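Q: What structure does this chain adopt?
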Amino acid sequence: MQGSVTSNAQSEGDAGRRTRNWPIFILIGLLIFALVVGLVSIAAFFVLRDQQAEGWTWQDPTTAVDSTRVRPDIAVLTLLDEAPGTLIWEALEAGEPDTAYAILAYSSVLSDAERAGDLQALAKEFETAGALDLVALAYQQMHTLAALSPALPDITRAEASLAAAEGFLGLDMAETARPSLDQAETLARYSPLLAPVQRQEIARRLLRLYEEAGFEREAQYIGDLIRQPVGLPDARLVQGPFLPSFRQTVPEPRHLLDTINERHQLVYRFLQAWDSGDSGQIEGARAALARALIAEDGLRQALYDENLEASLLLSQKAGVVLGYLNWLALKSMIANGALGISLVPEWESQSETIAARQGEVYGFLNVLYRDQVAILPSSSESAFARVEIARLQNLVGRLGLDPGYNVEGMALSMEDVQRTISDQLALLIIDEPWGSGIIFRLAESFE
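A:
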């Protein structure tokens, strides 16, 4: 009897211990599950990264905008004509990198320096979010700006090239980083606009990146620039910029300013409706804003035609064309849903027509630039100005802002105008095969 009682007590004790141990077993199971999920996530990261490295090629920046991830109440602020750089940072601070990217991709008024800085900030945000394709796309655009911009100082070109290379290396895309590394080295060795201390600093950073990429020969070769950071003696020149004098702002007439002010008021009304969350209010405010935008579009088209017929200077006509192109860029953003909302459905069905119109107007702007080149006082200035225009044409095209851009034709045209004065240009822009297309980069010669 006593043995039976003892046996029962032992059985009850074992059952109690098993009951008390269940939370421990569950906790261990959860820890194992979390570990497996973490390992799978890490593996997926590296698989995706390798796929991006192997299949990377150039992409039109505007096609990467995901309208479903754009926050309308931030993106619609572009209709208030606020500085896009300010809106981009507001979107980033709100934790909305896709919205910031949409504003950047469709902006035709950002300076090249602003765009480069904003792209670097966006790349970091996209990397945190795991959007590796957009990270690589941001670095691609930074490289392109450094290569093609007619306005960036050479030290900024070098900084952007180094940042792009470093970013690609961080994605384990060493071969994709190579053009940016080559570009930074070209600037360090051959730019006549860099001080010795700047050359030395660029070379030091290049050495670290070459070693990180495993480019041993390049790492060894860059050492001489660190030891003797002096540029090679060269009689080649730097002339310009000419483009700022080729465009002159024409004041907007009173009735257009009144129309713009009305648009701003309707944007505020839309934002108030959006905050209310009432679908009826939102639709009413959207429809009113859409009607105002369509009316403004008609007015701007009429003023554009009127100004081109007026007796204006060529530089003033170029200013008129640029203003209209800025409007068309905004119209394209709306038509492609990049505000995160179907704001003007009529334009969405006309997106191809709008794109064709953009290409046509950009073509006319280039004619106005060429006409001004023709009246420059010297053949040397004319040659340098043609190079500057060719670089701008390719930059605008590569940023996705000129839908009529033909990369092969414009690359060949740019090479032709550079060859006419290649013995005078401090640096050249060359193109070479890359993925399914081509890539531009700075070089010391065409060879």
